[in-house]
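Sat 14:20. Reprocessing the chain from the morning session after the first attempt stalled halfway. Input below, unchanged.
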Amino acid sequence: MSAQKKKKNAKATFKVDGVCMMCKKRIEKAALSTKGVKYAVWNVKSHDLSLIFDERKVDLKAIKQRVAKVGHDTKEIKATTEDYDNLHPCCKYREEEVREDHKK
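Finished this time. Tokens:
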């Protein structure tokens, strides 16, 4: 039984909650500061975080944990209340009113 070969330039995309350009900057910075992540772009409209990363150095769970640590939820890993509360008021994506404001 052979382990699947880990790719040097693996690609992945997953959803990250957020609402604005400040969120974009924070999410991308968190992903890129994770060892092994080479490329990270978060789309404000689709909420997709597109990555290129070295599977030999990092896995998706570690990247999602880093994103959650700066206050942003993914499907698998939610930010702690404390980390979420540290977000700028404009970035409180869990609040309906904030999400609606960003749709305008």
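The chain has a mean pLDDT of 94.
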